[in-house]
Design a protein that fits this description.
The protein is mainly alpha-helical. The protein folds into two domains: 4-89, Arc Repressor Mutant, subunit A (Orthogonal Bundle), CATH 1.10.10; 94-228, Orthogonal Bundle (Tetracycline Repressor, domain 2), CATH 1.10.357.10. 73% of the residues lie in helices and 0% in strands. It is built from eleven helices and no strands. It has helices spanning 4-13, 16-38, 47-61, 68-75, 79-86, 89-114, 118-127, 143-151, 156-182, 192-211, 216-228. Helix 7 (118-127) crosses helix 9, helix 8 (143-151) crosses helix 9 (156-182) and helix 9 crosses helix 10 (192-211). 22% of the residues are buried.
């Protein structure tokens, strides 16, 4: 077996190109070894907290503008831990979109369940956009709708995630419209599915207006028009 000094001398004797190939090979083997050593090892962080941190990062900056370094910093993870727990950047992003959709859908369901009427829930849903312009933070819009705008149909898997998320939002809003119809606050002859579509589109537009700098008075005027369209 060669001594360390002999290894060093042999390496230095290599041509520059061969030496670079050798070092690249060694680095790849070390990376594979470290990744293999982590397989099956218990995670030493809270995956839910890390995923929430990544979700807010993507929500604030979007997919393309969020770098891997941004994610490692906000999640407080090493690259190997991130890959072990969540896969690559795109896999992590899809998990974040799903988490956002889960949380937003549950918030809508809870809001509808606790609302005094279906109409009041719809009014509160629309007026919630005013919170986006009431503080000092920059409005971020809706992560699902932001993703639809950023990716359009360029990635079929993400497009499917977006469509599924919007359908979940739409289902809750349809339930709210149908409840309001039973309670006499929306005419029963109106198409509940179409009104739910209208509400999803209206909220998407309101969120976009807020991101673009619309003030509360402008948003309130739009909300009033949307509510009149339900009559």
């Amino acid at each position: 077996m060669l001594s360390d000094a002999a290894h060093c001398a042999a390496t230095q004797a290599m041509p520059v190109a061969s030496r670079q190939i050798f070092f690249d090979f060694v680095n790849r083997m070390v990376h594979k070894y470290l990744m293999a050593a982590n397989i099956g090892r218990p995670l030493e962080f809270d995956p839910d907290l890390a995923l929430d941190a990544a979700m807010h990062q993507f929500w604030s900056k979007g997919y393309e503008s969020t770098s891997m370094q941004d994610l490692l910093a906000t999640m407080n993870l090493s690259k190997s831990s991130l890959y072990q727990a969540f896969g690559g950047k795109q896999q992590l992003f899809r998990q974040c979109v799903a988490r956002y959709a889960d949380q937003f859908t549950q918030m809508l369901r809870d809001g509808l369940s606790g609302a005094p009427s279906g109409r009041k829930f719809i009014e509160g849903f629309l007026n919630s956009v005013l919170n986006d312009v009431s503080g000092q933070a920059q409005p971020r819009g809706c992560l699902v709708m932001n993703t639809a705008s950023e990716f359009a149909q360029s990635d079929p898997e993400i497009a499917q995630d977006v469509a599924h998320s919007i359908e979940r939002f739409r289902n809750v809003l349809r339930a709210a419209v149908e409840r309001a119809q039973r309670e006499g606050d929306i005419p029963p002859e109106r198409d509940a599915q179409m009104l739910a579509n209208f509400l999803v589109s209206s909220m998407s537009g309101l969120k976009t207006q807020a991101k673009a700098g619309a003030d509360a008075a402008t948003l309130q005027g739009i909300i009033s028009m949307v509510l009149k369209a339900l009559d």
